[in-house]
Amino acid sequence: MNSAMRISYPSRGAVLGRAETEAVAEVIEGGGALTQGIWRDRFEEQFREYVGTRYATSVTSGTVALETALRLLELRPGDEVIVTPQTFQATVQPLLDLGVDVVFCDVEPDTLNLDPDALAGLISDRTAAVLLVHYGGLPARMSEITALARRHGALVVEDCAHALGARHQGRRPGSLADIGCFSFHGSKGITTLGEGGMVTFDRPEWAERLERVRSNDTDYEFLPYAGPDNAPSLLPWMRYADEVYRRTCTRVRRAGTNATMSEAAAAVGVVQLGRMAAATLRRRAVAERLDAVVGEFAGTRTHRAAAGDEHACHLYTFFLDDAARRESLIRGLDEAGVEVQLRYFPLHLVPEWRARGNGRGACPVAERSWFEAQVNLPCHPGLTDDDVDYLARTLRSCLARALAD
């Protein structure tokens, strides 16, 4: 790889500035709590209003959001979970600990989202859950996917790490299934100082359980205490005097952890959420400029939203359906200082999932796309107009050379 990249993937996917600095200063200088305070409440309230769900619960990372969401489903050993292979490893990694049967479902060739037609051939009454991603910020075909899941009694989890700013038939990702999981990693559309996540849903019983888990409490089932009244003498408003002690635990679902987003991170999240609409428009403008270049050449396909949907353009993806010419293109871009990262290696082919019996041929569309066709280019609001001009000009010249070979 060229070590002197002119156009690279960013260390920050979001733009931060004085407003974020002032928000952190307000937290520090205000003398209030540094955790579990007003900023976290404000961020969660604004986020659930934006997404359109009854609840939005912040946690410390997108990975923790996914781990927690899967625990809420109460999956049991032997349950079947259908997942996409075209995503970052964190989407499916928590399933390695749960003893469930994981089935990889192929993706659509033009969207790289989970294919509802392929899902229809895999889902059964053994299926407890379907786990998908809105690849690159392009919404999956949720109406078809959720209808199939409901028919078989399965729950659906959306990994929305790419999807802030998108819409599907007028609704936001994160409100399209049973649970939505968001990441605020530094590379994402908005960030909460490098790490952070959110879980969105509508079920009140999940809200109570998730609040306990993220606050270092235990997620358990309980009945009112029926034993001898020998509680120690405590002031009645103190924790454990009545709220917890006078319960009988009947089953522990999982141990709690500290997944509390700090006040400084939440304050930055509030500012970032306000910036997001403008940042998404900038991403779309970059993508449209690149689409126009790609559209000049035969044998290429763009990654565009269906009618009625809006693409968040978290990733810029297009396809060149000729493996040799794609390799020539990527080498040309690299030599010209444009970084190309193929997102993402098909997960059913990584060692831990091959050890579970997966291999080549299980998801032929995902495999063919990654090994032969897809191209990913930088697309983020930090690109200047000069950067975009250079990127478009270089892409045109490299495509022309690759297709002339």
Describe this structure in words.
The structure is a single chain. By secondary structure, the chain is of the alpha/beta class. It has three domains: 18-215 and 257-265, Type I PLP-dependent aspartate aminotransferase-like (Major domain) (Aspartate Aminotransferase, domain 2, 3-Layer(aba) Sandwich); 222-252, no CATH class; 276-404, Aspartate Aminotransferase, domain 1, CATH 3.90.1150.10. The chain is built from eleven helices and 14 strands. The protein has a seven-stranded mixed β-sheet with strand order 1-8-7-5-4-2-3, sandwiched between helices. It has a three-stranded antiparallel β-sheet with strand order 11-13-14. A two-stranded antiparallel ribbon has the order 6-12. Helix 1 runs antiparallel to helix 7 (263-294), helix 2 (38-51) packs parallel to helix 7 and helix 7 packs across helix 11 (385-404). The radius of gyration is 23 Å and the shape is globular. The relative contact order is 0.17. The model has no long low-confidence stretch (mean pLDDT 93).
Number of domain units: 3
Mean pLDDT: 93
CATH class of the largest domain, named Alpha Beta
Proportion of residues in helical segments: 25-40%
Give the biggest beta sheet.
7 strands, mixed
- Would you give the CATH topology of the largest domain? Aspartate Aminotransferase, domain 2
Number of strands: 14
Terminal Cα span: 22 Å
N-to-C SSE string, H for helix and E for strand: HHEHEEHEHEEEEHEEHEEEHHHEH
Low-confidence stretches: none
Give the overall form. Answer: globular
Number of helices: 11
Please name the CATH architecture of the largest domain: 3-Layer(aba) Sandwich
CATH-wise, what's the superfamily of the largest domain?
Type I PLP-dependent aspartate aminotransferase-like (Major domain)
Q: Strand fraction band?
A: 15-25%
Radius of gyration: 23 Å
Tell me the strand order in the biggest sheet.
1-8-7-5-4-2-3
The secondary structure category is alpha/beta
